[in-house]
Automatic annotation (TrEMBL):
InterPro entries for this protein: GT117_domain-containing, TMEM260-like, TPR-like_helical_dom_sf
Organism in which the protein naturally occurs: Candidatus Woesebacteria bacterium GW2011_GWD1_38_10
Keyword DNA damage set for record: no
UniProt KW keywords: Membrane, Transmembrane, Transmembrane helix
Basic and acidic residues: bias regions: 9-20
Sequence segments annotated as region (Disordered): 1-42
Keyword tRNA processing listed: no
Residue ranges of the TM segments: 57-79, 127-147, 159-178, 213-244, 256-278, 328-352, 364-385, 397-417, 429-446
Domain of life: Bacteria
Protein name: Transmembrane protein
Length: 767
């Protein structure tokens, strides 16, 4: 009826009972042992009471430090998190995809979308803030895992805690801990893989059962990593090699069975890609090409549209005066500024001492530090334009895994360097050094990173949306604009607009998405992107709506000469209107479209590349407008445009030198032969024509063809240009026309070549 369990004893009671038992043993052996020996044995066996008390305190301390390693970063992350979209990378777009539970841009990021959808249901703040909580949570869990990892690697609890906090508050790690992006989740999975590998090694070395559980978890988490971001390969490959070298099986059958189970767990980790396949057959908002068929699916998950798995997909060096490795050097500056210059000895010492230490977890970390901290950034960032702010943003986020492992190497290397000191001195030096670093890092980064009142991206998007009506079409040419407009229109429902990516208009899969989602948008049979754009503008105008461009590059192919419409500058927008003339364009320049924009906080000094880029958008957009006015032959219009933006935009000032530096071309040839000669000169003037040069030439030759439809040189030029652009149906059409006009001109060979290439593409589409 009543429990007979004895009450728990205090450490002092355990000690007293132990002394009594020891005394009884001593009394029984007193007659057979010399007194001196009895005394030494008793002294040797006595364990002080403080041992039991200390063990309990260490346990409590460890639990407290685990909590602190998670709670301290989380509290600062949430305090600095943005309440709305920031425009960093693809964050606004990813938030919207997660909210609607549809596939994101290549490679789909299914893990982020699925987990993000759950966080979007939290009844706290805006949808954007809820996804920021998700990033902050995974960044804080990464800090906790770092604490556990450092402890396993023989660092004291206090040093482990301080080390994890220091890495968590470095600039780039903190910045993306509050940004809804895939890179923080990537860091979490990377550290989780390291921790599981360490647990697997412990079980292997001790010979205890259960090591296979960690082996299968490693495989599963690796698969999840690939379903999140492909840079996890920099961690997975060293971990898999380490496991392969360390595994031993007494029987071949056991080896095959384990390998099969390991592979199945890895494939199961990849299973979120089933969501991509299933979701792609739904009625998703048009983005980056639907993925029916094996070939398109492979292109999609390997980021074919962006240049490959690990490519940043941004502007590359074309000017010989630019440094090909400039962006890699910029990345190294970011790393050194984040970890401080004092980190370098520790990083290189750790790599030097541990990279050849076979069979240790430190060797894996050293190899990953080399791959993620140096080799991968050199490969993926080399060739990007250092001065380009968008490319700088790519370095910030693509380098995040490298920043993490450089931080880990710094901590472990510095700890190894401190081995030459006495144990107590070593602990004191490390603790004081890390405390100073954390204090300086938090103090210097808090104001730089704090986005709790950050509004310039939302204001920028609202400045555009407030000029639009429901049903209007907006062609975008950059990620920040497209993502911010997508979020505000599809999540916050500010305006019901149609977004079209001008950069992907040449993708036939994307064209198909546009046709399926908005059946009245495209009616042309041509797949050439500028024919498609003109057709969209015509159909939109006919339906009573307006079409606009938000262009940050030369708008020439979409512009005035030869098109059935004019591009009319209206602040951040270029309006494409079929029912206007040059006189209307001139009158439009007299209206100030900038004065009613919200420029709140635009004059603040921001440290991160994307905020700087957004600040530059306004004046750069005015320069595009001025260039367009100059192409219409209205220099006063261009000058007025620049003066208006300077009067409204804080911190800007009109400078006539800017106007003089713009393209002052006001007319193009009016004859077919003149346009043909212009096309030829464009290619002879430079050895490496840009993609835009091809499009310019195609449009000029189209206008020449309209003037002289039987000129075989013009038609042959069109065929060659469209072949180079990969527009094979048009290339075949014009090669056939040229062959009909000039049967003996040697046109059979290029015609056969293009027809063969066209059939290959049809086969790929079928697959």
């Amino acid at each position: 009826m009543f429990s007979k369990r004895k009450p728990k004893k205090s450490p002092e009671q355990y000690h007293q009972d132990y002394l009594k038992r020891l005394h009884r043993r001593k009394k029984r052996s007193v007659e057979t042992k010399p007194a001196s020996r009895q005394q030494s044995a008793a002294e040797k066996d006595i364990i002080p009471a403080r041992h039991f008390v200390k063990t309990g305190l260490l346990s409590v301390q460890n639990i407290l430090f685990v909590i602190l390693s998670f709670a301290i970063p989380l509290s600062l992350y949430l305090a600095t998190s943005p309440q709305t979209v920031t425009g960093y990378a693809d964050s606004a777009s990813l938030i919207t995809h997660a909210y609607h539970l549809d596939i994101a841009h290549p490679p789909g990021y299914p893990i982020f979308v699925l987990i993000g959808h759950l966080f979007s249901k939290i009844p706290i703040g805006t949808i954007a803030f809820r996804l920021s909580i998700m990033s902050s949570l995974f960044a804080s869990l990464t800090s906790l895992l770092l604490y556990k990892l450092f402890q396993k690697l023989k660092l004291s609890p206090a040093v482990s805690l301080l080390s994890s906090l220091f890495i968590s508050f470095t600039y780039s790690v903190w910045l993306y801990a509050i940004t809804p992006e895939v890179f923080v989740l990537n860091n979490f999975l990377a550290v989780l893989l390291l921790y599981l590998t360490l647990k697997f090694k412990e079980h292997q070395d001790s010979g205890t059962k259960g090591s296979n559980i960690y082996l299968y978890l490693i495989a599963f988490v690796s698969g999840l990593g690939f379903a999140n971001h492909m840079t996890i390969v920099l961690v997975v490959l060293p971990v898999f090699y380490f496991i392969y070298k360390g595994m031993s099986f007494p029987r071949r059958r056991e080896s095959i069975q384990t390998l099969l189970e390991f592979t199945l767990c890895f494939i199961f980790g990849l299973s979120p890609y089933l969501f991509v396949i299933i979701s792609s057959h739904g009625n998703n908002y048009p983005h980056y090409g639907n993925i029916p068929g094996l070939t398109r699916f492979i292109q999609y998950i390997t980021r074919y549209d962006y240049g490959g798995l690990l490519s940043g997909g941004v502007k590359t060096v074309s000017n010989p005066n630019e440094n090909y490795f400039g962006m890699f050097l910029h990345y190294l500056k970011l790393a050194i500024n984040g970890l401080t210059i004092f980190s370098l000895p520790g990083i290189f010492y750790f790599i030097y001492k541990k990279v050849t230490r076979s069979g240790s977890i430190e060797q894996i970390i050293a190899v990953i530090t080399i791959l993620g901290g140096f080799v991968f950034p050199l490969f993926s960032l080399a060739g990007l334009v250092e001065s380009d702010l968008h490319s700088q943003g790519v370095a910030e986020r693509f380098g995040l895994l490298g920043f993490l492992f450089l931080g880990i190497a710094f901590v472990l290397g510095t700890s190894n360097l401190a081995e030459k000191f006495e144990k107590s001195e070593k602990k004191t030096i490390l603790k004081i050094g890390l405390l100073l670093l954390i204090s300086v890092t938090v103090y210097s980064n808090y104001k730089k990173i704090d986005k709790s009142r950050f509004q310039i991206t939302k204001n920028y998007a609202l400045n555009i949306l407030n000029s639009l009506d429901d049903g209007d079409v907006v062609f975008t040419s950059d990620d920040i604009t497209a993502s911010a407009l997508y979020y505000l229109s599809e999540v916050e429902k500010v305006k019901n607009i149609r977004l079209v990516s001008s950069g992907f208009l040449g993708n036939e899969s994307y064209q198909k998405e546009l046709k399926d989602y908005w059946t009245d948008l495209i009616t042309t049979g041509s797949s050439y992107e500028f024919d498609v754009a003109r057709n969209i503008i015509e159909n939109t105008n006919k339906n009573g709506n307006s079409a606009y461009f938000v262009m940050f590059d030369d708008p020439y192919p979409f512009g005035f000469l030869g098109n059935p419409y004019y591009l009319i500058p209206q602040g951040l927008l270029l309006k494409a209107d079929l029912n206007t003339n040059l006189s209307d364009v001139t009158k439009n320049s007299q209206e100030d479209h900038w004065e009613n924009y919200d420029f709140t906080d635009i004059d603040k000094n921001y440290s991160d590349a994307y905020a700087k880029l957004l600040k530059n958008y306004y004046f750069h957009k005015a320069e595009v407008n001025a260039t367009l006015y100059l192409s219409y032959g209205c220099q006063p219009c261009a000058e007025t445009e620049l003066k208006n933006v300077s009067a409204s935009l804080p911190g800007s000032k009109f400078n006539k030198d800017v106007l003089n530096s713009l393209d002052t071309q006001t007319s193009l040839p009016n004859s077919a032969r003149g346009l043909l000669d212009l096309a030829k000169s464009r290619f002879s003037a430079q050895s490496t024509p840009t993609q835009n040069d091809f499009h310019r030439t195609a449009w000029d030759l189209q206008r020449a063809y309209a003037m002289s439809p039987r000129d075989k040189e013009i038609i042959g030029g069109l065929a060659e240009i469209y072949e180079m652009l990969g527009i094979y149906p048009l290339a075949i059409k014009y090669y056939k026309e040229t062959k009909a006009l000039d049967p003996n001109g040697g046109w059979n060979e290029p015609l056969k070549r293009v027809e063969t290439e066209s059939k290959k593409f049809k086969l790929f589409d079928y697959l």
